[in-house]
Design a protein that fits this description.
alpha+beta; 19 strands; disordered C terminus; about 375 residues; 2 domains; 3-stranded antiparallel β-sheet
């Protein structure tokens, strides 16, 4: 049995600056197994050629980004839609196509700042919530989208209100050797040679045959994954120092309840064992010979082992949620007219962020990483 004050020492100024988890991982095939980092598209201005994100000497000391902060957050957040956790937060869904389809706010790339909810009946309410956040009261946003305060949000298209991530997790591999792979598609029969199709007379027709699987298609030199010669490591941080900056206006009692609630949600997500599956060809598990580290880090740099379990975190989160008062579940409809209005050009102050595709990409939560 837990109570909402169990972790108040975390919320005091003398409490830890952060909780830190470090896990050493390995491919299921073994330490020398091949794994596939996230791939990124080339930038439209040519600054980035895309592909894997590997910093350093590709043939020497380097670091490969296996799973980014945004991608890791997108893997954690949906747990709050599962039966064991769904009562901890308001379940907000936006429906469309006459109610035949719906999307949970937990799956929206920009969370409470996403176009999906901005073009719904929640638009005005969220505008007020973000404005309140700018004024130092995070309660309205916590009543609608509390995970936006745990995993971070930026209302980049409207108020410019920001809430930093409380949880940041990244997987990196050290000193990797990049591999390539080649493939050859062989059609079921020789469609042209057997007279089933005419010989293509131009490049467009040839491309069409290839795209539709009617001719041989070679693919050479594509991304073939990497082999890590050094560690594969997941580093996760729960920034309690940042949590202590969140307020419910000037009311100290309401602020304490709000911080307890957000701490409970953060601890649940932070202590939940991570899924080993990242993407096709990449399943990572704990290295049995490298112990997992879970520590409290104090402001003076002192580190102490943390003994917090997921079960204990969940019990605390439930008590803190009851005390705070979880917001109501909501089901709203996507409003096409609001979306059209949102698309109209708006005057922006010179130098303000939030303009153009680069700013949009910066606000993205990298759903394509998965």
């Amino acid at each position: 049995m837990s109570n909402s004050s169990e972790f108040d020492r975390y919320l005091s100024d003398e409490g830890p600056a952060a909780l830190v988890i470090r896990e050493f991982l390995m491919p299921v095939e073994g330490r020398d197994g091949v794994l596939f980092p996230a791939t990124y598209a080339a930038s439209s201005d040519g600054d980035s050629k895309g592909g894997y994100n590997i910093d350093g000497d590709p043939a020497g000391e380097n670091i490969a980004l296996i799973d980014s902060v945004g991608s890791q957050a997108n893997r954690m957040e949906p747990l709050f839609a599962e039966p064991a956790y769904e009562k901890l937060i308001p379940q907000v869904k936006v429906s469309f196509n006459g109610g035949q389809k719906s999307v949970s706010l937990l799956s929206a790339g920009h969370r409470a700042g996403d176009a999906l909810v901005r073009a719904s009946a929640l638009q005005e309410e969220l505008q007020k919530a973000f404005s309140a956040l700018l004024d130092g009261d995070a309660t309205p946003l916590a009543k609608i989208a509390p995970t936006s305060l745990v995993f971070g949000v930026w209302d980049s298209r409207d108020t410019q209100a920001k809430a930093p991530r409380l949880i940041a997790s990244t997987i990196r591999a050290f000193n990797v050797r990049r591999l390539t792979r080649s493939a050859q598609f062989v059609p079921a029969t020789d469609y042209v040679g057997n007279g089933l199709l005419e010989e293509p007379s131009d490049k467009a027709t040839k491309d069409s045959y290839a795209q539709r699987g009617f001719v041989h298609v070679p693919a050479t030199g594509s991304h073939g994954g990497v082999i890590a010669k050094g560690d594969i490591r997941r580093d996760a941080t729960l920034a309690i120092a940042a949590l202590r900056l969140i307020h419910a206006g000037s009311d100290p009692v309401a602020t304490l309840k709000l911080r307890r609630y957000l701490l409970g949600l953060a601890l649940v997500a932070f202590t939940r064992p991570a899924s080993g599956y990242l993407r096709q060809g990449t399943i990572l598990v704990l290295d049995p010979d490298r112990p997992r580290e879970f520590v409290e880090v104090m402001n003076n740099g002192r580190r102490a082992a943390a003994a917090l379990t997921h079960e204990r975190a969940l019990a605390f989160a439930s008590a803190a949620a009851d005390e705070f008062g979880v917001g109501s579940d909501r089901s709203v409809t996507f409003d096409t007219e609001k979306a059209k209005e949102d698309l109209k050009p708006k005057k922006e102050k010179a130098g303000k962020r939030g303009k153009g595709p680069k700013a949009a990409a910066a606000a993205s939560e990298e759903k394509s990483d998965a």
